[in-house]
Amino acid sequence: MCTVLLRFDPDATWPVLMAAVRDEYLARPWEPPAEHWPGRFGGRDSTAGGTWLAVDPARPSVTALLNGYPPLPAAGDRPTRGSLPLAHLLPSDDVLRSFDAFHLVRAEPTEVAVTSWDGVQVTHRLLSPGDHVFVNQGVDVNAFAPLRTASTPDPKPGLTSPEAWGDWIALLSGGEFTGAAVRPLLVRREVEGLLYGSGSAALVAIGEPGVRYDFTANPGPDAKWSEIQLPN
Predict the structure, then answer these.
(1) Per-state percent for the chain, helix, strand, coil, to nearest 5
(2) Which of the chain's termini has less CB crowding within 10 Å, N or C?
(3) Mean pLDDT, rounded, of the chain
(4) Cα-only R_g, the chain
């Protein structure tokens, strides 16, 4: 996962609204969101077996993983970061230091917790209510104007994705970040002969009406969105 946009308001009908884009080598195989793990819904990385975003409708919570930047120097095999969104309890800081650099965002109706490992220290923080932007370089180091102007949706289960999400569908159609890491929201480029880009995106809402999870495998202006069916 390379971008997460979050609106957090503990007093709202929907305290958690998350928009997330996964950037990856496009040839890397993956499986679409489903209950690949008991009680956890998300896309599955076929290579390492983990995920970049996990929805737990029973808790309820959503956990998103972003790779940290800059990458850590090569040092033998490290465990897959894709296991972290699936952990019921985070490992100790000593164990977290065995992973490549990352940011892990866990959002629940009453709090949003962020754990980061940059190769020097592990940090834990709780975020204040408001709009937040997460990129590989860190938390709120960038701004994204469309998030500031997007109206708050009412994504009740059962509505079509455009009906449910309103402005938030357009939020993930493109745009530019400003701040420390200026770049487009959606990326596509060649890296050492391999195509790298924004291969999927998700919208997740957690609130009094329940949990809503929508997904697209072709993010952008022509995205085809669908609701992932979760247990009541």
Answers:
(1) 10, 45, 45
(2) C
(3) 95
(4) 16
* Separation between Cα atoms, residue 80 and residue 98, nearest integer Å: 10
Cβ atoms 81, 102 nearer than 8 A: yes
pLDDT of residue 126: 98
pLDDT for residue 159 is more than 70: yes
Half-sphere exposure of 69 (CA within 13 A, CB side): 13
**Can you tell me the distance from the alpha carbon of 202 to that of 183, in angstroms, rounded to the nearest whole number?**
20
Please tell me what DSSP assigns to residue 73: P
Mean pLDDT, residues 92-102: 96
Whether 1 shows a pLDDT value over 70: the answer reads no
pTM tops 0.90, yes or no = yes
Q: How far, in Å, CA of 23 to CA of 66, rounded?
A: 9
Domains annotated on the chain, with CATH: 3-227 (3.60.60.10)
